[in-house]
Amino acid sequence: MADAPKKKVVHVENSAAVEQQNTTWKATPQAKSQALVLRIIAAVLWVLAIGGEAFSIFYLLKQNPVNFVLLIVLLVAIAILAIVGDVLWKRSNRLDPASRTEPVRFFVQNQLGAIIGIIAFVPLIILILLNKNMTGQQKGIAGAIGGVLLIVAVLFGISFNPPSVEQYDQETATVVQLTGADAVTWTKSGKVYHLCEKASAVNLTSKDNQIYTGTVADAHAAGKQRLTLEVDQELAECGFPPRTSASLEATAPAATPTP
Predict the structure, then answer these.
(1) DSSP state of 194
(2) Where are the alpha helices (DSSP H) in the chain?
(3) What's the pTM?
(4) How far apart (Å, rounded) are the C-alpha atoms in residues 102 and 121?
(5) Directed axis angle between helix 231-238 and helix 165-179, to 10°?
(6) What percent of the chain has pLDDT over 70?
(7) Residue 242, exposed/middle/buried by CB under 10 A (0-12, 13-18, 19+)?
(8) 3-state secondary structure of 8
(9) Tens of pLDDT, residues 83-113
(10) At what angle do helices 29-58 and 103-130 cross, to 10 degrees?
(11) pLDDT of 63 higher than 70
């Protein structure tokens, strides 16, 4: 049987390094800068989306008859702008997450995309349904399209499992306790990160024949949700000591605090 092709290991350069000296996890200036750029771009896209809504409300819907085709185009454009902004905003939150100790900020920062989606669509949909310059059929079609786009935009904007400083702090401490260093691996197609490039799961999921290495925060910035559940198997595969009772407790899933 032919050997599987050797995977290329790609080291991710310190996009969100962690200082583990009895301090709370903090994003590096580089990670904060990247997050700020993403948030500015997302904010611009959201402003354009709301601008499209304002144009529709204060100009287009006042025309008699209403340009129905242009209205549908604007609805789709508003949704695209809002959704792309949502994706960039979520990525920025992975680079520089909020803390659960500030519940209001934590909620707003992580659910802002959904809030923007509601602002960008609900008033427009209501005014479409109440508009006197459109036929009933036009209002029904435009309202239905707007409703579907609203749902899609809100779903893209919601963070169902938002990252937090506390999560990164705990996960980093766990990895350091298990392996002695804040160093993990992941693949582009996988949803979790792993303990080393020798782990069998890493090689199985590496569809592009590349394995990425970096810190726990780097893995989250790349879109990975958590540490693999196959911790014991990977400790053996990577040559690390088996878990002790203390590390078993450390790697147990933590209860999510309620704001």
Answers:
(1) B
(2) 29-58, 68-95, 103-130, 136-157, 165-179, 200-205, 216-221, 231-238, 245-250
(3) 0.79
(4) 29
(5) 40
(6) 84
(7) exposed
(8) strand
(9) 999 999 999 999 999 999 999 999 999 999 9
(10) 20
(11) yes
